[in-house]
Design a protein that fits this description.
The chain has 292 residues and is α/β, with parallel strands linked by helices. It has two domains: 232 residues, Rossmann fold (3-Layer(aba) Sandwich), CATH 3.40.50.410; 41 residues, no CATH class. It has ten helices and eleven strands. Strands 6-5-4-7-8-11 form a six-stranded mixed beta sheet, sandwiched between helices. The chain has a three-stranded antiparallel beta sheet with strand order 1-3-2. Strands 9-10 form a two-stranded antiparallel sheet. The protein is elongated, with a radius of gyration of 23 Å.
Amino acid sequence: MNVRSTQGLIEELSRLGRLHVQLRRLIESMPLGSHAARGVQGGGDFVEHRAFRTGDEPARVDWRASARGTRVLVREQRAERRLTVHALIDTSASMKTGEPVSKWRYGCWLGLAGAYCARRGGDAAELHGVAGEPSAKLRLRRIAELDVAAQTFEQLEPEGQTDLCAALAPLAERPERGMAIIVSDLLSVDDLFWKQLAELRSRGWDLSILRVLAQDELSFDHTGPVRFTGLEGEEPLVADAGALRQAYLHEIELFDEECIRQAASAGVRLIRCDTGQNPVEPIRSLLEGANL
């Protein structure tokens, strides 16, 4: 993996100048909804003419159409679409594992990369630390704030049990729809989580999951007696890692299949990530509309 620090991530993203263009295309491909309202902006799609009212900008007057009748007409236009991109990063205890880069730090990089692309494309971006005990929310107003945002989130210490359902609830309460990028290992989600995602999709939200696992979770290259410590309330277990390896890898395979099945059923884009990847690659896959 080429990226070793937040600053390295920012530098690499800045060299990939067209990622934000891909995000804008993805947003523009979404069907129109409540976020695409008629407005007074000069840009956007023409909707209809209406009579001039006190306070209207003279630049909006359609003089050619007005000359054909007895009233001064202005062009009513649909405002150019702008969405808020929400990056929800799992702060539960299971995210603290992984060497040399933890799932939490890698997840922060993914969330920051998504926010960066949103701001480059002119859309609003919010970073949320959710699902565990520490929580945080930061609205990224300028790309220059990315480094400060990184410091804020990387100082959080993941703790507590996963509760992604509670993290999704505020999105369902918002009057406007948007785009959400959920960064989590998904190790403790249930059917209710997937049902909530399906409900958000039915309301027009664009949803993506970046499922993050550590390299050692995927390979399980342990041998001999190993003490396994539960991070979210499970009892410790001492076992022969070598004897467990095949069964463990089979469970990981089943976990993969279940995540893929549930995501497809909910209509959610799923990108499987591991902490050994360059974090720019999953973001590129997400913006290309791929499921990996």
